Amino acid sequence: AYEFQQGLLPTAPPAHPYFSAAAEMVPCLSIGDDFFDYLDLDGRFGFVLGDVSGKGAAAGLLGARVQEIFAFRAPGSDPATTIATVNTAMVKKGLEARFVTLFYGILTPNGELTYCNAGHNPPLLISKHGVRRLATGGLIVGLFEEATYEQEVVTLSPGDTLVTFSDGVTEASNGDGIEFGDERILERVQASPSAIEPGELVAQVIAAVREFTVGEPQGDDITVLVVRYRGGV
């Protein structure tokens, strides 16, 4: 099951002149409840990070199902519509107490990032102007038939970096019961020169979590996805 789930995750970061991206998921158990994926949308770059409630095989299967719906429904749809479709499909299945938090973004070559955040930890958009938390969206996915979703369009400048993560990062606790939090992510990312590639930034955030929680068991999946806009082509 572990090998099957790992096989569903992207095997390599996407390569394109106008952006770079990288991600890693460190499961808490042999089967994780987090997932991420990349989507090639006719020259636009789609990326999603999700966190399924619960742990183990059931959560992993649901995550795989959500990935499947994304792959089928995302082309031709905007982020809010795609997430609404996922919500409808899950509600119809009637999976009691099962839900997903999702962040889904689409980046174009001219730097327009359209995103929808469905109950997920707000990603950190880091630019020369400061830090923004991307929170526009709606409720968690899979529980409420009447849920509606909004999206926002943000224009990125070359060098702007988006750090997306699961709550296994921010809620990781040390021996004193103190959580890692957003600010420690910022400390690690902003301390790095802008020339460092997304893959190295992902590794640095995960290393920071491990250093902070040294000696404590991992309580949840740890997933980080970084996207950097390089400029139009």
Could you characterize what this model shows?
This protein has 6 helices and 12 strands. By secondary structure, the protein is an alpha+beta fold. Helices cover about 30% and strands about 30% of the residues. The chain has a 6-stranded antiparallel beta sheet with strand order 1-2-12-11-7-8. Strands 3, 4, 5, 6, 9 and 10 form a 6-stranded mixed beta sheet that branches. The mean pLDDT is about 90. The termini are far apart.
Question: What is the element layout, followed by pairings?
Answer:
Elements: H1 2-8, E1 15-16, E2 19-26, E3 34-41, E4 44-52, H2 57-73, H3 79-93, E5 100-107, E6 112-118, E7 124-127, E8 130-133, E9 137-138, E10 152-155, E11 161-165, H4 167-170, H5 181-190, H6 198-212, E12 222-229
Parallel strand pairs: 6-9
Antiparallel strand pairs: 1-2, 2-12, 3-4, 4-5, 5-6, 6-10, 7-8, 7-11, 11-12
Helix pairs in contact: 2-3, 5-6
